[in-house]
């Protein structure tokens, strides 16, 4: 096991009816900017719950943060923060609203010229405006981590940012919000969380038995409750296990002391930036090809995953590892997710070369757990995913 530091300061308030607790968590005398998306919260009752819980506070609203939070829209919110002397941000939404809020928390205190630099120059956020979240869509883990991904339509870029200043002060997780989520988004959530675990697990054995078993238990739980949630989003037992699994998949715990990959996300973000494909679906497109391409380097963990997750116990390491990749692809397909890029766009020719060029230009020349995956390798993987 590798050495590690672990600190996660986010307070989680989990369970039915917990949105009412907002009033206990918001700082007194705060001037709050409540941020949300395209309006789902107005149709499912979450807006009313938040309004009621914040009724004693001074709250300004900013709505319209789109899926894949867009820089131009966020810059409008930044103007509101400055003009209204906002002191606390409250995100009410899924990963997009929460990530957009993280960008704003950082940009509000940024002293450089143009806040886009936080993303292009990878400026770590050590200090930010404090913010809390009310999670409406389990998927990304953004409610308990310090990362964010922001899109800029103008340049067709989607870039990450983060830093110790970007943990939410608190996050309210009420599994009942799942009732109104369309099945496409539920499937996305299961797939995203599952792939987050894979990115932190599918590397090479590192003697971290407990981290492996944390990771495996999250995948097993997602496999068990995923179909139940899809079948009946008001099944509270399934919903609560699904929600907590998504948070645990990316709150930092399972990556401590182990090598991590994250190349699937790096490639996937480009597919969203270029074609607007849902984040989770880009991961399902890239992951099978990524594991096939990197088979030799990953086969021991793939075989362990085959045995412990999919009960593939017969045959050689190579056989089990290969069957596990097929089984993973089947899992995505069974939920209705296409795992080939050509199913999402007719314009896919040239995508692999374009991503090679982008990674080369950005100096992303060594991805993966061995920092050995070159832009030319990335081009091959993306081609395998056509
Ligand atoms: O905008 P509204 O009207 O609210 O509708 C949203 C949106 O259209 C809807 N929705 C959310 N909660 C709902 C609901 N509809 C009905 N009932 C509810 N309770 O769902 C749609 C998708 O929402 P979005 O927030 O975009 O989804 P998700 O949570 O999957 O977030 C995706 C974003 O997070 C980033 C992705 O790249 C993408 O931009 N990620 C963030 C990460 C992080 N910060 O750690 C890690 C991830 O790997 C990921 O990259
Ligand atoms: Zn993800």
Automatic annotation (TrEMBL):
GO terms for molecular function: alcohol dehydrogenase (NADP+) activity; butanol dehydrogenase (NAD+) activity; metal ion binding; methylglyoxal reductase (NADPH) (acetol producing) activity. Signal peptide: none annotated. One of its GO terms (cellular component) is cytosol. It comes from the Bacteria. Residues 9-175 form the Alcohol dehydrogenase iron-type/glycerol dehydrogenase GldA domain. Gene3D superfamilies: 3.40.50.1970, Dehydroquinate synthase-like - alpha domain. The keyword Cell wall biogenesis/degradation does not apply. It holds the Pfam family ADH_Fe_C. Belongs to the iron-containing alcohol dehydrogenase family. This is Iron-containing alcohol dehydrogenase. The lineage of its organism: Bacteria, Pseudomonadati, Bacteroidota, Flavobacteriia, Flavobacteriales.
